[in-house]
From TrEMBL, chain A:
UniProt-listed NCBIfam families: NuoI (TIGR01971)
Residues in the signal sequence: none
GO cellular component: membrane
Protein name: 4Fe-4S ferredoxin-type domain-containing protein
Keywords tagged on the record: 4Fe-4S, Cell membrane, Iron, Iron-sulfur, Membrane, Metal-binding, NAD, Quinone, Repeat, Translocase, Ubiquinone
Keyword 4Fe-4S assigned: yes
TrEMBL record, chain B:
Record keywords, A-Z: Membrane, Transmembrane, Transmembrane helix
Transmembrane segments: 12-31, 83-105, 125-143, 164-185, 205-223, 253-276, 296-320, 341-359
InterPro entries for this protein: NADH_UbQ_OxRdtase_su1/FPO, NADH_UbQ_OxRdtase_su1_CS
Topological relation to the membrane, as annotated: Multi-pass membrane protein
Claim: Transmembrane is one of the keywords in the record: yes
Name by which UniProt lists this protein: Uncharacterized protein
Pfam families on file: NADHdh (PF00146)
Gene Ontology BP annotations: aerobic respiration
One Gene Ontology CC term in the entry: membrane
Keyword Transcription carried by entry: no
Compartments (UniProt record): Membrane
């Protein structure tokens, strides 16, 4: 009986906790709507499309292909990223480069982002620092799956 | 002849007004639920819906929801029983919406030499009518569970039925003490009686005469609305509930029924336990304070005050029910049965006996 009574008291206390949250947040929200500045912000969350959290410098976001000074991709089509990719989402087709220093360049470089798991292994594997994941773009939603396949034009930036 | 015409017209206007009131409250209760739950959880809540860039704290959100729900595909699974599947949401909706007929919104309004009761129909069994219609509403849930031909929907419907038998008895018994005190089932006379004073200063509201009855009725009525902590028919985390196979506006009707039940329960709590449209010490010609002061008001102001008081009380109980819904986790199946049969029913019996003893003294 005493135990049941204690449960009952705890149940009542629970409603006071939520009630307190409601009351304090309501009060400070009302002050904000009325244009009164207070030190404490009631229930203020990040209002996403307008405000954004700063992305950490080591965050792995959308890939980009680096370019040489003449605008061609740095990639030498060594296939290391293709080999290491765990989700097998990179497709590279090599072609011969007239410059003997470079020897190969990617005729096609395709990343299927609908399969990519953003592990960053391709960035780790690349000997030429040709691929990076530092664009800061994390909003990759598309209406069709075909739009998720990124080729050279979309990756070089 | 013209007299009957006027009477019919007045009844028609009253029906339209009451239904519009109920549906508008339902619409904005969804908004209130979103905002209140957000504030409880330290969020801001729905504030994006806008018309031409004007947001005003998300007040357009219910319309956006309604438009979304109307334009969604109304999918009827091939394995369902089509006729019953379509009927079920309408049955639920009808039995809840019809209870608004017996709710008194205010006292009489005098226009010229005509007296209009601010209540659609002044039943002499108004209270019984509301209780009967609210419990008939469970048929919509059982039928939807059966007609969906889906095991989870069926479990939801069966749970709804089991829930009804565990709270409905306590819901009825808790009101018997109240009926003994205000010897009437007519809601308008129950409210009129609550305008009298106890000890010369305290209004004779049900909460002061029947505190135990109020607690039992509140708990049973929370089970009546089928929302957390008593959302067994729905149980959205384990079985999706009786509306698993519904989509579009039919699902929307079930959701609206939930919110309408919240409003009906709030109006019932207000009418039975918090004096309905009574404002403390407000008589038909103005305020008569127990310490001797008087403040005379015109008829229209008094009626407006009474209707406003009714709305404020209903709003408070809607707020309280949403607070409860966002505070407590769901009861287990057997816990609800225990709660209904072993706690609420004995308490309401104790209430009846106690009321009887005090009344005979």
């Amino acid at each position: 009986m005493i135990k049941a009574l204690r449960y009952f008291i705890e149940i009542i206390r629970g409603s006071f906790i939520t009630g307190r949250h409601f009351a304090s947040n309501f009060f400070f929200r009302c002050l904000k709507v009325l244009g009164i500045k207070t030190k404490r912000k009631g229930a203020e969350t990040i209002q996403y499309p307008e405000q954004r959290k700063e992305i950490a410098s080591r965050h792995r976001s959308l890939h980009r292909l680096m370019t040489r000074p003449d605008g061609k991709p740095r990639c030498v089509a060594c296939m290391l990223c293709v080999t290491v990719c765990p989700s097998e989402c990179i497709y590279v087709e090599a072609a011969e480069d007239p410059d003997p220093e470079i020897q190969k360049y990617p005729a096609k470089f395709i990343i299927d982002l609908s399969r990519c798991c953003f592990c960053g292994f391709c960035v780790e594997a690349c000997p030429e620092d040709a691929i990076r994941m530092d664009t800061g773009n994390v909003e990759l939603a598309e209406y069709s799956q075909d739009d998720m396949i990124y080729d050279l034009d979309k990756l070089i930036r | 002849m013209t007299e009957t015409l006027y009477e019919t017209l007045i009844i028609f206007i009253k029906i339209v007004c009451a239904l519009v009131w109920l549906l508008a409250c339902t619409l904005y209760l969804t908004w209130l639920e979103r905002k209140e739950s957000a504030l409880i959880q330290d969020r801001v809540g729905a504030n994006r819906a806008s018309i031409f860039g004007i947001r005003i704290i998300g007040l357009f959100q219910p319309f956006a929801d309604a438009i979304k729900m109307i334009f969604k595909e109304d999918f009827v699974p091939s394995f369902s029983r089509k006729f019953l599947h379509t009927m079920a949401p309408f049955i639920s909706f009808f039995f809840v919406a019809i209870t608004i007929t017996a709710i008194p919104f205010g006292d009489t309004l005098r226009i010229g030499n005509r007296t209009i009761h601010l209540q659609i129909l002044d039943f002499n069994v108004g209270l019984l009518f509301i209780l009967a219609m609210l419990s008939l509403g469970i048929y919509g849930i059982i039928i939807s569970g059966w007609a969906s031909n889906n095991k989870y929907a069926l479990i939801g419907g069966m749970r709804g039925a089991a829930q009804v038998i565990s709270y409905e008895v306590a819901l009825g018994l808790s009101l018997i003490g109240l009926i003994m005190v205000y010897p009437s089932l007519r809601l308008s006379s129950i409210v009129l009686y609550q305008g009298e004073l106890l000890f010369g200063f305290l209004p004779k509201w049900g909460i002061f005469l029947q505190p135990l009855g109020f607690v039992v009725f509140l708990l049973a009525a929370l089970a009546e609305t089928k929302r957390a902590p008593f959302d067994l028919p729905e149980g959205e985390s384990e079985i999706i509930g009786f509306f698993t196979e519904y989509s579009g506006l039919k699902w929307g009707l079930f959701m609206m029924v939930d919110f309408m039940e919240v409003i009906i329960v709030s109006t019932l709590l207000t009418t039975l336990f918090f004096g309905g449209w009574q404002v403390p010490w407000l008589a038909s010609d103005g305020f008569h304070f127990p310490w001797g002061g008087e403040l005379l008001l015109s008829h229209v102001v008094v009626v407006l005050l009474q209707v406003a008081a009714f709305n404020i009380k209903v709003f408070f109980f809607c707020w309280l029910q949403i607070l409860i819904r966002w505070t407590y986790p769901r009861f287990r199946y057997d816990q609800l049965m225990d709660f209904g049969w072993k706690l609420l029913v004995p308490l309401s019996l104790v209430n009846i006996i106690g009321t009887g003893i005090i009344m005979t003294l």
